[in-house]
Write the structure tokens for this entry.
Amino acid sequence: MSSIRVNPYVLPDLLADLNNTQQQADTASLQMSTGSRINQPSDDPAGAAEMVANNAQSSQADSFLRSINSLNGLLQTADSTMNNVVTALNRAISLGTEGANGTLSDDDRTDVANELSGIQQQLLSLANTSYQGEFIFAGTATVQPFVADSSNPSGVTYNGNNGANSVQVGEDYSVQINLPGSQVFTGTSGNVFQSINDLINALKTNNNIGSAVTEVSNAYNYVTGQRVFYGNALNQLQAQQNFLNSDTLDLATAANSISATDMAQAATTFSQAEIAMNAELDGISRISQVSLFDYLK
Amino acid sequence: MSSLLATMYVATGAMATDQGALEVTSNNVANVNTPGYSREIPTLEESPPVVLGNLTYGTGVQLANVQSVRDPILQLRIQQETGDQGQLNSYVTAMNQAQTLFTTGTNDIGTEMSNLFSSISQLSTDPSNLSLRQAVLTAASNLATSFNNTASNLVAQRSNLDLNVVQSVQQVNTLTQQIATLNGQITALQNVGQDPSAFIDQRDNLINQLSGLIDVSEIKSDSGITLTTSRGTALVTGTQSYALSTQPDASGVQHIFSQQGTDITSQINSGALGGLIQARDQTIPGLLNGLNTLASGLANAFNAANTAGFDLNGNKGGNLFTPPPAGVTGAAANMSVAITDPSLIAASSDGSAGSNGNVANFSAIQNQTTISGETPTDYYGNLVFTVGNDVSNSTAELQSSQLVLQQLQDQRGSISGVSLDEEAANMTQYQQAYDAAAQVVVAVNQMLETVVNMGATAVSS
């Protein structure tokens, strides 16, 4: 025979083709339904490994954002507390100036001193402010930081400590989130409780009222300076939040380009595979039913 | 001058030959769907002529032999490729199961690691908060569970593969026994000069199945075929087959032994057994080792971080995870959280309950290159890459091997396959030749009658 003999068994080849086409359709359909073209590591080994890193990074960014959210509450509480402290001290200075007026009677000065005692109470309670059960001016201690104590010249005892916490809100970025109460209220260059106590005593004894008022206004200046810390921390967190939001967006975009299904392409592959499958099935149904034997009848 | 009877003899000989040829066709048609069947062709040849005086007369046709059409070299190529395909197929099947454990989802190790670091990050905002502390313990315990599950799944897959190894070895033994028997039958037929085609087809088919299970090297000799593994372990020589056996080693892993008692497990690199052994003894242990290294490294790092600080009660911190075994073996399967009391997490750096100073030591772990010189996430990412790349490469090889095998089968089909068209044409041809020869017989018969009648007329007249 001179002509090349062809393989008479065509069915195995056709079935293998059909199987391949079926697999293409399955893959495309899985990619469309999951929205991801990496459904197991072997789909794109490098992409799968990148997704591990991407997931870790976006999870980290998410947790930094959650930290910032809870810190915002804490810092805002601290900031508004400081605002109240400043207001109270401002009032104390006015009262002191009023009491320094030589025309006031002893009774008048006692009234002023009593009002100042009220302010002292208010300041004590402000210094013991807590946020979600934690005292915000106790340093890193968890006890009530300030307790009234008449044996102490300042009228209070500090039971907190001098520690401060920093919280990581970026990969290499931490923000200090508190100042110890000892620093804020009983600092060496401005002691809130001592100054109010001194002013009360000066008014009661009508002695050195002027210098006592100066002491309070020193404390006022000092506390105002301390308050800036909280404003700064809030600003830092705000800036970091903006950064993290855009970082999260970048990571999501990256994840999308690594693993998201190209829907148009997947849909095209799917419909092409479907057409091919129909053609193959049609071919299989027609072929090898007919041989020369059919014509010899 | 020849005789009428000689002519008759030629015609009946042709009828017998055509009938024989038709029988071959009939056998071909009957075996059109028999796996491994090679089509046969009848070899017709002229009978030796008779010389009478100056004239030489043909004495007709005879069926010299019936030949199977096969290409032994092609058969060898098919066997080799079947071996490769068997190896890749069993390997890909095994590793496809393994890689699902490394698919990023909700409970995979990568996600659980992130969750743990995330919970630690939250703890730093309120270090004395018990529910945040509990969240860290829960996340740590989830991570340990994820390691446990992944490791125990891999171990379970190994034992499944072990079962497959034993079954495959049993199949190998059945096949080698059958091949040895066929060797005997073929030699016996050859010795008496008969055609052993049918048995050769069967043997080729069985050797092909054997190649799909184990690497086979084939040597043809007078006493039939000798089969060995590629490293020379005898499987069949002539009518003798050599059974392989399996025996578990100390760790319960089944090893394969030759009949002489040699451990040939690591020598098998083709056929389904080759793939099973590669997955069982190399790839999966490699993955387990990676998991153990990661689990042990993480546990040690977290323990170091926790012991560097102070717990909620102001005491020096202890271990967060149960200390991993000294060698890393078993670290992933046995990873567990050592404490149940959330106050024992050492977030404080100075003993004060509200300090978060030590949390940074925990957070730092995710960026430290403590796991074989890589960060935990990178190390895990590399594991994912390794397993994915392995499966993806072997799948690609499997697909190309399938194409090659398909082409070889096509070639075999084009040489040895039964074409019904061809057989139909042959059938018509032999049938017509038979009819024609029969017509000659009828003609000779009439002529003989004429001759006989001539005699009768002479007697009666």
